[in-house]
Design goal:
homodimer; mainly alpha; Arc Repressor Mutant, subunit A; two-stranded antiparallel sheet; 6 helices; 2 strands; globular; DNA-binding
Chain lengths: ~160, ~160
DNA sequence: TATTGTTATACTCTATAACTATA
DNA sequence: TATAGTTATAGAGTATAACAATA
């Protein structure tokens, strides 16, 4: 039987569920991250689009959406905005005219550079006082948690 | 000079910024967490309200909002829904008639129990294959990251 | 028929501003 | 004046469903 948390009068202070703690930490960090990006003239989804475009050859919208982990319609929504703001261009694929090939404009490149600066700065701030070793351990545990979260639910709750 | 990540043709594969990785992990876990709560008939903000009510004597809305980390108006929104669903009751304070004292109804207690079950199950699943020692290290690092994220930005970017 | 993307619509969570009622 | 909470409104991010164009 594993060590559990509990609430109310059942027991004195007990550890918060790890999922909730990470969700909470994630929200807090996301908020700060977003503020850093907003101050630099962008947003989190925009940044994700930009790095996806810079990193590899994900130029079809389908690939970008998959890389970011959002639905195609949601991506369309963001790309509309980014295109209206002049950060990206879209053109139909020559081979397959259904596909839209996305590319950065010079303004988009500038935005990327600006956001990259904000990201680096934020990352430096976050890592203050945390050793490389500790950080590596963190990454390993996070990876494991993601795997566990995505794994099947197993026999814990047989009914329903 | 610290080890940095980078993108595009500058360098081969490099680690993702830790802030982004946590934000990503947080989103993924939040999503699963939410699905677990939804399947049990609740939601994340509802759960946060419930544990806040169960944990201590945060009965004034102001305190609940502060404990959860949302604005008062946002809490009002959630409480409206929870009251309409019969999970909580509100009554004006006897001493200070401006305040609303929130309490769980029997249905609210049942919801709490149901959600607690879902949370425990999810937590067990998440912690699979992670030692107590590793988990403790994770919590310490997360705490440090939250502190760092909330800390002043320091001299990294002197301009602007 | 299947795939790529768009449009229309809606939901959740959040926030700000203006307001009511108490203190 | 200050505080507790509400109402109205809005915005960001997300999703689903129905659709058009192309394969």
């Amino acid at each position: 039987m594993s060590r559990h948390f509990c609430y109310g009068a059942l027991m004195p202070a007990s550890p918060e569920p790890i999922g909730l703690e990470i969700a909470r930490t994630g929200r807090a960090l996301s908020r700060e991250f977003n503020e850093a990006l907003t101050a630099a003239g962008g947003s989190l989804p925009q940044w994700l689009v930009l790095i996806t475009l810079k990193q590899g050859d994900h130029r079809m919208q389908r690939d970008i959406a998959a890389a970011i982990g959002i639905e195609g319609a949601t991506l369309t929504h963001h790309l509309h905005r980014m295109e209206a703001d002049g950060f990206i261009r879209r053109q139909r694929g020559a081979g397959d005219r259904r596909s839209q090939l996305v590319e950065l404009t010079p303004a988009g490149e500038q935005l990327f550079t600006r956001l990259l600066g904000a990201v680096i700065e934020f990352d430096d701030r976050l890592r203050r006082g945390i050793s490389d070793r500790e950080l590596a351990a963190l990454r390993r545990t996070l990876e494991r948690l993601r795997t566990n979260a995505a794994s099947p639910h197993e026999s814990t709750s047989p009914t329903r």
